[in-house]
Amino acid sequence: MSTLNGKKKLKINQISNIILTEKNIDNISGLLGLLSSLNLINRKKKLNIYVSKGIEKYIILGKKYAKTNFRYCIYLYILQTGLIIKNQDYQIYAFNHKLNFEFLLTAKNKYAQFKLNKAQKFQFPVGPIYGKLKNGCSFLLPDGIIIEGYKFTKYNKQGIKKSILTSKYHTRNTKEISCTSKIIEHKFIV
User: Fold this and answer.
1) pLDDT of res. 7
2) Do 52 and 24 belong to one domain?
3) Helix (H, G, I), strand (E, B) or coil at 9
4) Are residues 134 and 56 in the same domain?
5) Are 58 and 90 in contact (CB under 8 A)?
6) 3-state DSSP helix/strand/coil percent for the chain, to nearest 5?
7) Per the domain annotation, does 2 fall within a domain?
8) Quick one: which of 19, 75, 94, 104 could link to 50 by a disulfide (CB 3.0–4.6 Å)?
9) So what's the pLDDT on residue 159?
10) Which residue, among 42, 36, 182, 30, has the nearest Cα to 106 in the 3D structure?
11) Do 51 and 139 sit in the same domain of this protein?
């Protein structure tokens, strides 16, 4: 993947999930063009599209009137409050806020190289316990000593928590969610 000014460029074929936060022209106007472009480059991978109720009709009608058939599978999911995307590295939660949705993205902690020598000094048996230590699990030994897994890895990276706020009016729920996370987008609707 090439970079520009230290940022990674995203290739169109790498898109696997699309989330449309609102039913307005700003959000949906380029969708059919994007779907057609993916078809032109012979995309084979499935595409997940998360939409609020009503946008699915727009996509179906747009496909019908453009007289196009996509070579790849499109899965439409109607947004609801709760977990919408769960990946091995991150989760995305949606929260219904009147006509809009607010989103919370959480990424898991990354644990790097396991310190095998340190584990052997404690005389831990080789096996699943090593994996648990690498994933940051803590253990209480019979003599009362607490073994903390994060001390058995190098270069642990803290997971992130970011809020995507799409409305200028916020509820208590939105404030509680965003107070422990970074706000990455704050779009005002006029």
Assistant:
1) 66
2) yes
3) coil
4) no
5) no
6) 25, 30, 40
7) no
8) 19
9) 65
10) 182
11) no
Query: Both 85 and 100 in a single domain?
Result: yes
Q: Which of 64, 79, 94 is the last residue of a domain?
A: 79
User: Which of helix, strand or coil describes residue 140?
Assistant: strand
Q: Flag whether the pTM goes above 0.70.
A: no
Pairing mode of beta strands 161-165, 146-148 = unpaired
Of 52, 59, 56, the residue nearest 30 (C-alpha): 59
Apex 87 CA angle, 83 and 89, nearest 5: 115
Enter the tokens of residue 91.
């989760």
Ranges in the chain, pLDDT < 50: 1-3, 183-190
Residue 4 lies in a domain: no
Which of 81, 71, 75 has the alpha carbon at shortest distance from 40?
71
Q: How many domains does the chain have?
A: 3
Full residue range of the structural domain in which residue 128 is found: 116-152
* Angstrom distances, CA of residue 178 to CA of 89, 109, 163, 184: 20, 19, 6, 10
Is residue 178 located within the same domain as residue 163? yes
Is residue 124 located within the same domain as residue 148?
yes
Structure tokens at 2: 């090439």
Q: Running DSSP on this structure, what letter comes out for residue 153?
A: B
